[in-house]
């Protein structure tokens, strides 16, 4: 078999052995890089999907609108909530109401009796609540008959800005059922200078 020189290959327009080796090396490199890129994108998409599922199902992130929870939460605050259906008096919860999400404070649980005096001070089972989060007490938009017993599977909620909040004191909102609950507000993440637990 006759040996073909590099000059003959070049004259005929065919690649040399060196050129073929170089091209093979380039193809292998590109193939490895694109495989690594596809793998990295796949991992990032999976991580993002898991993060979205956690955010939606376990830790919903919410933005506060309005002033009904002032001064505890102000308009524009961004908070994280935790899913759940068992709440203690004083905890802050988010719930669905007429295709919106409202945020209020738990005042009483099922079966408990709520009473409010004319100055706006709240009593649960005849014991006055200690409410350090309230700046100004107000009777507010109250049209329920007091004292009021919280129905089964519901919680009685009120906003911290008692004069502006429409809440369980008013039949237009009423007590909140388990099905309405989004979760308990546990942490403020925005603004950064006010980041921390919500109490």
Describe this structure in words.
It is a single chain. This protein is an alpha+beta fold and 199 residues long. The chain has two domains: 6-57; 61-197, Umud Fragment, subunit A (Ribbon), CATH 2.10.109. The protein contains two helices and twelve strands, in the order ααββββββββββββ. Strands 1, 2, 3, 4, 9, 10, 11 and 12 form an eight-stranded antiparallel sheet that branches. A four-stranded antiparallel sheet has the order 7-6-5-8, with no helix packed on it. Strand 11 and strand 12 (196-197) form a beta hairpin. The longest helix has 41 residues, at 17-57.
Summary tags:
single chain, 199 residues, alpha+beta, 2 helices
Secondary-structure-derived class: alpha+beta
* Weakly predicted, low-confidence segments: none
Indicate the overall shape.
rod-shaped
Please give the share of residues in helix. 10-25%
At the third CATH level, what is the topology name of the largest domain?
Umud Fragment, subunit A
Strand count, sense and barrel status of the largest sheet are: 8 strands, antiparallel
The total domain count is 2
The CATH class assignment of the largest domain is Mainly Beta
- The arrangement of helices and strands along the chain is HHEEEEEEEEEEEE
Count the DSSP helices.
Answer: 2
* CATH homologous superfamily label of the largest domain: Umud Fragment, subunit A
What's the rounded overall pLDDT mean? Answer: 84
Percentage beta strand:
25-35%
What is the distance, rounded to the nearest whole angstrom, between the alpha carbons of the first and last residues?
Answer: 90 Å
Computed CA radius of gyration, to the nearest angstrom: 32 Å
Overall CATH architecture of the largest domain: Ribbon
- Strand tally: 12
């Amino acid at each position: 078999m006759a040996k073909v020189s590099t000059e003959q290959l070049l004259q005929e327009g065919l690649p040399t052995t060196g050129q073929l080796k170089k091209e093979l090396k380039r193809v292998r490199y590109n193939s490895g890089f694109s495989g690594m890129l596809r793998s990295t994108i796949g991992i990032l998409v999976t991580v993002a999907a898991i993060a979205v599922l956690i955010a939606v199902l376990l830790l919903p992130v919410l933005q506060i609108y309005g002033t009904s929870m002032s001064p505890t939460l102000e308009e524009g605050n961004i908070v994280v909530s935790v899913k759940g259906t068992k709440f203690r008096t004083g905890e802050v919860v988010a719930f669905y109401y007429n295709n919106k999400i409202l945020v209020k404070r738990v005042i009483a649980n099922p079966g408990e009796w709520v009473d409010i005096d004319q100055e706006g001070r709240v009593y649960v089972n005849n014991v006055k609540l200690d409410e350090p989060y309230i700046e100004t007490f107000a009777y507010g938009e109250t049209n329920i008959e007091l004292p009021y017993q919280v129905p089964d599977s519901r919680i009685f909620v009120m906003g911290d800005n008692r004069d502006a909040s429409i809440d369980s004191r008013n039949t237009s909102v009423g007590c909140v059922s388990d099905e309405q609950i989004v979760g308990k507000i546990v942490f403020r993440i925005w603004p950064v200078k006010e980041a921390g637990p919500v109490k």
